[in-house]
Write a structure and sequence with these properties.
About 45% of the residues lie in helices and about 20% in strands. It has about 250 residues and is an alpha+beta fold. It has a four-stranded mixed sheet, with no helix packed on it. Strands 4-3-6 form a three-stranded antiparallel sheet. Strand 1 (about 60-70) and strand 2 (about 70-80) form a beta hairpin. The chain is globular, with a radius of gyration of 22 Å.
């Protein structure tokens, strides 16, 4: 996924085809994959494979943003120590502008910290870091529950998934419940929402899904979520499912 985001879909699949065609039945090494990608893209990718294949750590990123005097500033820092060097990391940030447009800011983190800036007439609706899940890292993005809730309007599925997971750490269950119960949403998105409701111990919505949803996978996820809840209503719903669920 990181390579695909870095080089683009077309170049990614060209490189995969070259790699499989040239490798044939022989034994291969990581260097063979790297050579195929470099041949198709013209990029030097030693740094990429050295960081994410050879090192035995992943970067730890701390993300924050602020809006002041018409300027949005996104700051990204990485923690380093004896085991974890400073990584070179391509950055993408999705911003929901107040006029309804969605803008992507890009840059690179090459040292311990960097900042991306963008002029904006009013505060952003949301700021989604790494909206395509294109960086393998431990990411801590500090923002309040309202900001994560606003991020559910993002057109990027992973940005929405990240928002749902973060909302699971809050008591803001209303927007999460809407996603969980919306039949127009994909199963994957609803599944993440149900998991978040379990973290919140939002038993009322989970009981409704367990009782009525037509997707057995969602009912199972709701049962797992209710396993974290308290009270007789949650217990009764679980017993009822054990005795009477059609699956």
């Amino acid at each position: 996924q990181m390579l695909k985001a870095l080089v683009g879909d077309e170049a990614f699949w060209r490189a995969i085809r070259r790699y499989t065609a040239e490798s044939g039945p022989r034994l291969v090494e990581t260097q063979d994959l790297r050579a195929a990608f470099e041949a198709e893209t013209g990029l030097e990718l030693a740094w990429f494979f050295q960081q994410w294949v050879e090192l035995n750590t992943v970067p730890k990123l701390i993300v924050s943003h602020r809006y002041t005097d018409g300027m949005l500033t996104i700051e990204v820092a990485q923690e380093t120590d004896e085991r974890r060097p400073a990584y070179t990391i391509p950055l993408t940030v999705e911003v929901g502008a107040p006029d309804g447009t969605v803008v992507r800011l890009t840059g690179w983190l090459e040292d311990e910290a960097t900042a991306l800036q963008w002029k904006l007439a009013a505060p952003p609706l949301w700021v989604a870091f790494d909206p395509d899940a294109a960086v393998l890292a431990e990411i801590k993005h500090s923002q309040d529950g309202a900001a994560w809730e606003a991020q559910l309007a993002s057109p990027s599925p992973y940005a929405r998934i990240r928002a749902l997971r973060e909302l699971g750490e809050t008591d803001r269950s209303g927007a999460v419940a809407e996603v969980a119960q919306d039949p127009k949403e994909s199963f994957s998105m609803r599944d993440v929402a149900v998991e978040a409701l379990g973290q919140q111990r939002a038993s009322e919505t989970l009981i409704a899904i367990l009782a009525d949803d037509t997707d057995a996978r969602l009912r199972l996820a709701a049962a797992h979520g209710l396993g974290r809840a308290h009270g007789e209503a949650a217990a009764d719903a679980l017993v009822g499912a054990i005795r009477g669920d059609q699956n």
